Each structure stands twice: as structure tokens, then as C-alpha cells.
Amino acid sequence: MCLPDTMDVYKDPHKFEKELAKINAQLTIVATGGSVFAIFGVSLFILGVTTGFDAISKTGEVMTLLTIISNVYSQFGIFIFFIGISVLVLAQFLIPRKIDKLKY
Fold this sequence. Notes:
The chain is mainly α. The protein has helices spanning 6-9, 13-56, 60-101. The protein is rod-shaped. One of its GO terms (molecular function) is transferase activity. Keywords: Membrane, Transferase, Transmembrane, Transmembrane helix.
């Protein structure tokens, strides 16, 4: 089986447009996913902070439980936020490289 030369792949302009459309779809999915992760992380962090403030007014075991929950939500939220931001930053660098590799 003979693989086509990379220059022969894009002699048809429709193939080039299809490849560019696929990269555009990938960028859209990655940007949406990264943004959702970042926003979810921020909302978890806010939930943790709010739970922590609520724990201040409680006493005893309830205060301990709410403090633990607050710490878990806050730390997990920060972790998820940085995952989302990392995905967005990686996409910012990798997708343009992929586009530059396309040959018309």
C-alpha cells in the first residue's frame, strides 16, 4: 500500500478546507472544554469559601465537618481551575502549529 505524498494530499482545495475545518472544530471543542473546567473550578472554590464562612457561625462537630468540606471544595476547585487554564494555554500554542503544518 502506497501512502500519498503530503503535497499530493492538498492538491484538491476541498481536502485542504476539510482539514482546516477539522482543526477549527478541535479548537472549538478544546476552548469550550477548557473554559468549562476553569469555570467549574472557580465555582467549586467559591462554594468552598462560602461553606468556610458558614462554618464560622457553627460550633463543635458541625464546624469541623464544614471546615473539612470547605477545604476539599476549595483545593479541588483550584486544581480543576488550573487544569482548565492549562488546556487553554496548550491549545493556544498547539493549534497554530497544526495550522502552520497544513500545506495548500
